[in-house]
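Fold these two proteins, one after the other.
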Amino acid sequence: MAQLLRIPYHGQLPNWFWQVPARVYQNQPSRPDENPAVTEQLFAHEAERNDIVLFGDADATLRLAGIFPENSSEAYFGFWETVNDASSNEAAFAALAEEARQRGYSRLVGPLNFSTYHAYRLRLGGVPSWGQFDREPVNPVYYPELLMGLGFQPVSTFESRLIRPETVLAVFADKDMLLRELGKIPYDFIPLTPDTWEQYEHAIYELVQAIFGANPAYRSVSFEQFRLLYNRRYAERLCPYTSVLFRDQANGQLAALSFCHPNFQALQLPANEQPVFERDFAKLPRKVLLAKTVGVHPDYRQRGLMSYMGAYGMVHFRERYEEVIFCLMRTGNYSLHFTDGLDYEVAQYALFGKEL
């Protein structure tokens, strides 16, 4: 085993940080979406409110970021990639755990890249039929086994559900009442196009913070950091027929959001080229809708808006798509109920933790 390196982050990521995933995923069917320029900017932003220590080796067999947030009893590990070597991971995680204990943390949680706003979780089990969708956690199957061998256990679980074509008619029959009632509720429906995204960008940012702010391990981000991932280029990939903002007709406040777009993975676009719905949708060999981010402002919950947003998406689903994946829903979350009772294929994920 190569000598373990410990490098406090001071503004630049070392070369081996990028070499590790290239090595790990060279023979894997899928690999995480990672943009080096965005990752460098993210580290620079987050270094303002976290101490960050990198662990790895010059042979590029492992990388691991220890993240030490202020005013928290939990330290995080993130940006973890590794070959299947238990001894090197045991050494790296032991060093990270000891450092966390010395700093006064009582728990270690991950993989979590600073916040649940960014990439986190591991995919459990084998590769599902869809392979990989945009920003889905993907990893070699040995990752969960390595973590559990080091004493980590799942602390939160999630799932994605693929609804097959033969089930879609049943979805419509089951939700027929919601479809009829859509036109009667006191909300404006604002389709999300690149232009409307720019028009409501700051309000969308505030709505995202309000909806997801209470989620476990979520940490608020600045508007500048929000725009690293969610901006006009992101809006260009959204399906304008199924992505929507609900606006309260009484006061003009945004009450709910639904971000949906096709699964563009089959196009195998170059890493530096972002998908564009208007340009790329017709090229897709199979039209699979991803229901990615759906949520309701806390002031508007318990009014059925989650189901109404699902119904809104279905109005246009039949004429444009063949399948739908409800993506990355937390176990026990209300959003799971929309597909309860249906036949579906499921992929599962977990966030892991360990007491120190």
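Now the second one:
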Amino acid sequence: MKQFKVMVKVSGVWVNTIVFADNPNHAFQLAKSQFGSSNIMSPPTQLGH
């Protein structure tokens, strides 16, 4: 599993969170299901290598 950083809106505030997934698409789908598609600011970016 890889780590991805995603900026999401929680209670009206934009925060960075970490999502563990196999690829950026899965990370986006996880974040979208947890926070809602309108609460994701940008695509996930992988941390590390």
